[in-house]
Amino acid sequence: MIRISRSFRRNERGAAMVEFAIVLPLLLLLVMGIIEFSLLFFDKAVITNASREGAREGIVYRYDPVAGADARLTTAEITDVVTAYCKNYLITFGSMPSPTVKTYVNSAIDDSSNAVSGDEVRVEVSYQYDFLVFPNIVAGLFNGSMASGINLVATTTMRAE
Q1: Distance from C-alpha of 153 to C-alpha of 61, rounded to nearest angstrom
Q2: How many domains, in total, are found in the chain?
Q3: pLDDT in tens, 71-109
Q4: What is the DSSP pairing of strand 69-71 with strand 150-159?
Q5: How far does the chain reach from its first CA to its final CA, in angstroms?
Q6: d(Cα 119, Cα 20) in Å, to the nearest integer?
């Protein structure tokens, strides 16, 4: 009886290695998926904050020393604020595509410098998130509809001062 249990234990020496070889790819896939979606949610938070920064800059008056009067930022200046924020905080491993910025005043595309007190200034930022870790796997899971990534959109509306 003792001989049978010893030989049985000897035959199980490679079992742990085989189990590890089976579980390791699934574990790595899970960890990399967690990392991928963490980056996606972080980038979504960044463009949300960028739209807030742009809207805040668009609603306040700034003293313009050239004109000698108070003025609001133009749409181009708001776009520069949003783009600078995104360049500082977005996580990309390669060249970063520029976010698309649209500025609306009272639901119409307009220059925010035309806004008067009480108007709603809306800044919409869209950014194409490209999957970093598993782009082919994500494209395969969603029948190629997400092969080029996900379009993240953030909108912030604030009332002009």
Answers
A1: 27
A2: 1
A3: 888 889 999 999 999 999 998 877 777 899 998 888 787
A4: unpaired
A5: 89
A6: 62
* Tokens describing residue 23: 């579980």
Q: DSSP state, 36?
A: H
| pLDDT of 144 strictly over 90 | no
- CA distance linking residue 39 with residue 4, whole number of Å: 53
Range of the domain at 85: 2-159
Residue 84 near residue 37, CB atoms below 8 Å: no
User: Angle at which helices 15-59 and 75-89 pack, to 10 degrees?
Assistant: 160
Structure tokens at 96: 């970063």
Taking the model in full, what pTM does it have?
A: 0.78
The angle subtended at Cα 22 by Cα 29 and Cα 31, nearest 5°, is 20
